[in-house]
Amino acid sequence: MSVIDDTQRFNDLAGLYERFRPSYPRAALDRITAYVRAGTAARGGGPALLIDVGAGTGISARALRAAFGPEPEIIGVEPGVGMRTTAESEHGPGGPREAMDIRFIEGTAESLPAANGTASLVMAAQAAHWFDRPAFYAEAVRVLRPGGAVALMANDKDGERSALVDEYETFLERHGDGYSRHYRDIDFAAELNRVDGLGDPDDSATPWVRTLEPDAFIGLAMSTTMMQPVVRRLGQERISAELRALLERHGATTQVELAYVTRLHLRRRRH
Fold this sequence. Notes:
The chain has ten helices and seven strands. The protein is α/β, with parallel strands linked by helices. It has a domain at 6-155 and 182-207 and 263-269: Rossmann fold (3-Layer(aba) Sandwich). The termini are far apart. One of its GO terms (biological process) is methylation. It comes from Nocardiopsis rhodophaea. InterPro entries: Diverse_substrate_MTase, Methyltransf_11, SAM-dependent_MTases_sf. This is Class I SAM-dependent methyltransferase.
């Protein structure tokens, strides 16, 4: 049996990912923007280059463009062929989002395609748990300008605030291949605090609620890698029936209110 390359794991899910995955709350994006602008202003300039690492289909890169406006250059670094192709189709010449002016290039977190000291922001959204993080942190320090920022951001479904989310996670744990809802319980703050050259810690958590239709909830579930072993085991028809029954038990047959918390970790390059 061949080993799946993690960088290509989402190739077959790119369409679902682009269609059903959420963006990020404005409060978290505003926090990133203010932090980056404060660091660059202290050195007499503005944001020049923003790098989105593990950019996927471009959801987080588009969020950066909306938050920062038209001036900074934005590069999305994505190793996955299917994800990058989907991002490029949305933003390429003649595409419906050409005005977003985002460039997507092949690359990895552990070997960023950027020169030393050129970036105002290196961000990983929904991606850092896949990385060789010590290598990524070293690369982030290398490419950041003095005063530039590294940002780790992730949307997590919040089972503590939502019985529906709690039961959904239990379903995945029961039927998945060793899946645990705690798979992203990584102390990113402590890791970043140990990185030489980074300081000015800013850690936050933003709770929010996403409202979506039942079909979109099922599409969101199918866009995840942890659901794929369940699909192989149970089949899509049974999974859809099980998820609709779950929604019915929680009174969400016409509208689903999905509790999230967005966790954000910011650090600044000191010198």
